[in-house]
Amino acid sequence: MDVGLVNLGDLEYEKFERGVRFGADWADVSRRIGGRKLGAGHWIVPPGRVTVPYHAHLVNEELAFVLGGEIWVRLDGREHRLEAGDLVAMPPGPDSAHTFLNRSDRPANLLLVSTMIDRDVIDYLDSGKRAVRVGHVAGENETVTLRIRDDRLLALDDDAYFEFEPVDEPPGPAPETPEDRDPRIVTIDLVVEEPYELGPFRAVRKRVGRVAGARLLGVSQYRVAPGDRTWPYHFQHVNEELFFVRRGHGELRTPDGPRGLRPGDFVLCPPGAGGAHAIRNTGDGPLEVLALSTMEEPEISEYPDSGKIYVLVGAPPGGDATARQIDLLFRREDAVDYLDGEA
Questions:
Q1: Residue 326: count of CB within 10 angstroms of its CB
Q2: Long-range contacts of the stretch 179-185 (C-beta < 8 A, 24+)
Q3: pTM of the predicted model, to two decimals?
Q4: How many angstroms separate the CA atoms of 48 and 252, rounded?
Q5: Which of 7, 76, 102, 228 is deepest in the core (most CB within 10 A)?
Q6: Interior angle at CA 112, CA 110 and CA 126, nearest 5
Q7: Helix (H, G, I), strand (E, B) or coil at 3
Q8: How confident is the model over 150-190, as pLDDT tens digits?
């Protein structure tokens, strides 16, 4: 698969409503540009609406980034007000139960990203349902979801998703904001900057996912000065990456040639040689890019310009370097025969 690109302004939205409570306009970003390991969707949530039933994933991890407006997140039984620039991480587990409620008088814009592990258990705490989801059952893209309540199997159609949920209850007034904000919520502008310079590659990075406690998703923001590049041209064999251009203009290098970058662009880099990429700032001002990725290991990265191979075991790129058993770079030309050095 090749690098995919789409702009926020070119997305196609589906509208859904259920009762007086649930409703939004939703665009599937990831599938539009070929994502298979990262799910990404842009949500426009009208005033007085809730995105989805209150739920917790036991396998997959999700995170949400507020692009515009304000919205409340109900997270582990408490509600917190979010505004543009806030990010919330929801690692797998019962204490990450969540949903999003728009209690403002204008629409809220939300980017939701998740791992797409093809097996999951999802608990719906308001209705007492449990869903078991398994992918690739009868076909490559087929997913089967079973929903259970009180040891009874519910219908297999989409209506069962909202069954027993409070669809006729509006969100109501905003509760009092807790004095202690959940540590999984971070404001990107307040995250500590980490400048780096490696030869001709330099930028200022904020390790957002690490601060928010994300485990299966990596999230960093890069601010790149005019003319600078973030990293060498490379691709990964295991992990998938998604970039969102927040500000500025740049150039994306791909196997098919250069492509311009502008605010609102989403870039999907799948594993494999077709996902090779590099980013350079070609504008007059800073280029700000939100970089998201799966965090699987072991990982093998390749650098086509230099013929290098990078092997990581114990922690993925961007992970805890102290946890790695192997962290080595080689050139392809250094390869030896299978029996070389053996007795």
A1: 10
A2: 181/80, 182/75, 182/76, 182/78, 182/80, 182/88, 183/212, 183/213, 184/75, 184/88, 184/89, 184/90, 184/91, 184/96, 184/212, 184/213, 185/73, 185/75, 185/80, 185/82, 185/86, 185/87, 185/88, 185/212
A3: 0.95
A4: 39
A5: 102
A6: 95
A7: coil
A8: 989 988 777 889 999 999 999 988 888 888 999 999 999 99
